[in-house]
Specification:
The protein is of the alpha+beta class. The chain has a single domain, classed as Gcn5-related N-acetyltransferase (GNAT) (Aminopeptidase), CATH 3.40.630. Helix content is about 30%, strand content about 20%. The chain has a 4-stranded mixed β-sheet, with helices on both faces.
Length: about 130
């Protein structure tokens, strides 16, 4: 599911990132299951101290949400967002946030329908600091 959500990353990266998510007290991953127990979706959440457009933390952040194509358009995405909101409230969050790539207009429309409002449009940069 992560390969569908985060395209262009190799399996080793996914393995290392999932190990980090599972080991951290500030991140969580959940599977969405149908009644038969079949996984149909993935939800990755984190608690962030700072998020553009939000004042104070922690801020609940939906890092990733993916649903199998046959389960989209049926309210499942909204149910996952509602699940995330409840989980974030339990963690003491006042706000939740997420992002979408600039060219992912379908994702942007989904987030708007789910009650999110756009805060900023940016291009993010990274500079590695080397081994610790």
């Amino acid at each position: 599911m992560r390969a569908h959500l985060y395209t262009g990353l190799d399996g080793d990266f996914h393995d290392r990132e999932m190990a980090f998510i599972l080991d951290s007290a500030h991140t969580a991953a959940f599977l969405a299951l149908v009644g038969t127990g079949e996984p149909i979706g993935l939800l990755e959440l984190s608690l962030r101290n700072v998020v553009d457009g939000c004042i104070g933390g922690p801020v609940g952040y939906i890092e990733g949400l993916w649903l199998a194509p046959g389960h989209r358009g049926r309210g499942n995405g909204r149910r996952l967002v509602d699940f995330a909101a409840a989980w974030f409230r339990e963690q003491g969050c006042r706000d939740m946030a997420t992002d979408a790539l600039l060219d992912e207009t379908g994702a942007q429309a989904f987030w708007r329908r789910a009650g999110f409002e756009e805060t900023w449009r940016v291009v993010q940069f990274r500079r590695p600091l080397g081994d610790r």
